[in-house]
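Blinded run. Sample ID left blank on purpose so nobody reads anything into the name before looking at the predicted structure. Input follows.
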Amino acid sequence: MTFGKVLRSAAILSVVAFGLWILKRGSETQS
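Blinded prediction complete.
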């Protein structure tokens, strides 16, 4: 487990979480 690998997976996870949060907010404002 290298530092770069950890950093990369953390970045991917944050991007996915951010995308899900945006989708959740979007669906809330529509309804």
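Unblinding after everyone has recorded impressions. Residues 1-31 form one domain.
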